[in-house]
Each structure stands twice: as C-alpha cells, then as structure tokens.
Amino acid sequence: MSIGADVRRDLVVIVIFVAGGFLGSVLHDSVKTKPTTIRAERFEVVDVSGHLVSYWGPDASPQMSHTTPRGTILVFMDRAGLRRFQVGSRAGDTSPELLFFGPGGPADGPRVGIELGGTGSPSLHLRGQEGDKMDLGAMYGDVSGKRELGWGLSFRAWEVPASAGIGYGRWWDGTYRSYVSLTNGAGKTWEAIAGDKLKPLPLARTPTQ
To answer: Is 44 part of a structural domain of the chain?
Structure first.
C-alpha cells in the first residue's frame, strides 16, 4: 500500500513539474515575443449572443458604391443592427467627421453631424425627425476642394419651406458681404444685405471659385 501511494505521489509531482515547466516556457516566449504593433483590417465587438454591436475599420456601408474611397471609422449600432453613431474619416476625401443617426439609421441621414470641409473649415449640421434643419459654420459650393463661400447660421423647415439665415458670403464680384434673410414659406422673403464692400479679396477670382 505504501509503495502504491509513493508511486501516485511521485506521478503527481512529475505532472505538476512538467505542467509548470510548459506554462513557464509559454509565458516566457509570449513575453519575449510581445508585439509592439498590432495590425488588422477590422476590429469587432459582439454581445453575449454573438451579434455585432460595434466595429472599427473601413466603412462597410452598403449605400456606398464600390468605386468610392472608403474612410476608416468607429461605429456603434443598436439592437436592430442599425448604425447609430460613427466617428472617423469621411468616405471620398477622408476628412474627419462625427455623425449621430436616428432610429432609422443612415438611410434617413444623420441627425447630428460635425465635419471639416474640403479645405479644413468646420461645420455643424442638425436635423429633426420631420426634416427641419439647422446649419452653422462654413458654407461650401458645389465644386469640391474650393475654399468656403462664407460663414453663417441657417434654419430651414421641411413641411413649410420657411427659412432664416444670417452670415456673410462671397458675391459674384469677388467681395464679401453680410446678410440677413427670412422666408415665410408662402412666397414672402425679407432680406437685408450690406451695400458696402466689406472685405475685397486680395486677388480677382471668377464667380465659380
């Protein structure tokens, strides 16, 4: 009986010794080869059921064409799998932007957006459930990469096309002028525009620039 007990004790000691040596070797190698940089195309976070709730990587929006350069973004989704928040580089020109989406997701457009335009000037955009909008910051034209046309604050209703705005912008003659504009949505508009040339541009530019 004592011999059997001794044998079992020796076997336990041997197993513990071997396991300890193996674990020590693995830990030593893992510490020794610890990477200084981790590279991956995409990082994902899932809930306890395995559903995707967040990811960090190239924009995976199905609404984008295959030819559009995709930005790199951090996205959070709701329980229905709809994108509700994203921050990162914008698709197309990779400028930084921050977007909040409503219950309808990206299909309804962002409710809140903060971005830098093509020349690096900031803009803030707010949109209500019914489509009412507010914009604050730099105003750009239709030509990408051109300098901003001016700065201002504007409001626009959706159901009734009423609007209001205040700011300053570049006119056809290359000068900057301030303005205030009110529209009641029924065809009546009141505008006040400074008649003096407030800020001539240092160089002559065409109206489309």
So the answer is: no
